[in-house]
Design goal:
alpha/beta; FAD/NAD(P)-binding domain; Enolase-like, domain 1; 3 domains; five-stranded antiparallel beta sheet; 26 strands; 23% helix; globular; binds flavin-adenine dinucleotide; FAD/NAD-bd_sf; oxidoreductase; Rubredoxin-NAD+ reductase
Length: 383
């Protein structure tokens, strides 16, 4: 028996930890295309104001992780194919590694913006430690940063950069920030708080082109305006990495399709984290992947366990106006009701039967989180 995990992000390493809690004997191998350093990805968007270097964010190197997990950790090695019949993965080097059980924890790719202009290739993205390093170097001598995207990552970087003293423009096509998490009123409260930090928030527009101008760039917006910047950061969404699974003939929808046991359409192969769609849900956050890691770790150790998803509110680390939100499931009919003043708001979304299905808390109201979530139905309950 041998287990192979592809990916050493939070999903890969946390699966290995959960597995080793119950099984200290079975040979375990982790393979990763990156350096295998263990770090907490959410820290990437709060590192500048704390002056954290990439090295500061590393919790353990691959050798330490190998020792802790009693595992082989193979770094800088991309898996290019899965041979399901032969039960082995093929590496870019030509080597192959056999498995009895395979876990795909390959994460997601940031969506690349489609831009015109001779400096479109200079637009940066931050979805891992290496990209954070490039971004940090780029802003070291810069003063003006333009951010594309008003979601969690765009807003957190805007907050972080503004607090670190940068001049920040935040550009997105929706009417208000965090469109997937918040209704209008709390979203406006966040926008006002970001503006209070000095962030210039440009709603209802897209970035069309980026052209070089001296050491910096000029970005053209869809309404014809032009903004100067030294660095442009795109944070316009993620796409689960499904190519390996798809090419191996596994079922793929928005992510790699898995059931409550995190099993793909091949029972010898599991998937979790940002690459996976668990029972129809793609939730690219830490709490869901930790629940999945515990379940799949136990299952691999012989204790077949279904994942449960309680209410797992998303915490947005915008210190100017913290947000905790759990949006209602798509397609559920109901209405929002809110109270509060300024940036200290609470709202609840109840469905047609009066059941609480979603909520938001902002500012000082985030401390009400436990009380709000207590009675909410789980997304995936006990089986
Ligand atoms: C800036 C930022 C802030 C965030 N803040 C929060 C937050 O506050 N709260 C929250 O809940 N979530 C947050 N998230 C999301 C959260 O960090 C992710 O959901 C989580 O880290 C994903 O972990 P993962 O292991 O699935 O993927 P990743 O960390 O992307 O790991 C994927 C791994 O797979 C490897 N890999 C991929 N393809 C191959 C291949 N073919 N062969 C070998 N290896 C491969 C990669 O090298 C990597 O090791 C944030 C994300 C970002 C980018």
């Amino acid at each position: 028996m041998s287990i192979v995990i592809v990916g050493t992000g939070l999903a890969g390493y946390n699966t290995a930890k959960a597995f080793r809690k119950q099984d200290s004997d079975t040979p375990l191998t982790l393979v990763t295309a990156d350096s295998g350093r263990s770090y907490s990805k959410p820290m990437l968007s709060t590192g500048l104001r704390k002056q954290q270097t990439p090295a500061d964010l590393v919790q353990a190197g691959p050798q330490d992780m190998a020792a802790e997990l009693d595992a082989r950790v193979i770094t800088d090695s991309r898996v290019v194919a899965i041979d399901r019949r032969g039960q082995c993965v093929q590496l870019a080097s030509g080597d192959s590694i056999g498995y009895h059980r395979l876990v795909l924890a390959t994460g997601a790719d940031p969506i690349a913006p489609r831009l015109d202009g001779d400096a479109a290739g200079r637009v940066l993205q931050v979805n891992d430690l290496d990209q954070y390093e490039v971004f940090r170097d780029a802003v070291a001598d810069a003063s003006r940063v333009l951010i594309m995207g008003g979601g969690l990552i765009g807003c957190e970087f805007a907050n972080d950069l503004a607090e670190a003293g940068y001049s920040v423009d935040l550009v997105f096509p929706e009417d208000a920030p965090l469109p997937r998490l918040l209704p209008e009123r709390p979203a406006r409260a966040l926008q006002t708080a970001l503006e209070g930090l000095g962030v210039r928030v440009h709603t209802g527009v897209t970035l069309d082109a980026v052209n070089g101008a001296g050491d910096g760039v000029v970005a053209r917006l869809s309404d014809g305006r032009e903004l100067g910047a030294d660095v442009v950061l795109a944070a316009i969404g993620l796409r689960p990495r499904t190519a390996l699974a798809e090419e191996a003939g596994l079922r793929v929808a928005q992510g790699i399709s898995v059931d409550r046991h995190l099993a793909t359409s091949d029972p010898a192969i599991h998937a979790l984290g940002d690459c996976a769609e668990v029972d129809g849900y793609v939730l690219p956050y830490v709490a869901p992947l930790n629940n999945a890691a515990r379940a799949v770790g136990a299952t691999l150790a012989g204790d077949t366990t279904a994942v449960t998803y309680p209410v797992m509110p998303v915490m947005v680390k915008t210190s100017c106006c913290q947000v905790v939100a759990w949006p209602p499931p798509e397609g559920v009919a109901g209405a929002w009701q809110g109270d509060g003043d300024g940036r200290d708001l609470r709202g609840e979304f109840r469905d047609a039967d009066g059941v609480l299905r979603g909520f938001y808390l902002t500012g000082s109201r985030i401390r009400e989180r436990m009380a709000v979530t207590r009675d909410m139905p789980p997304l995936l309950g006990d089986q």
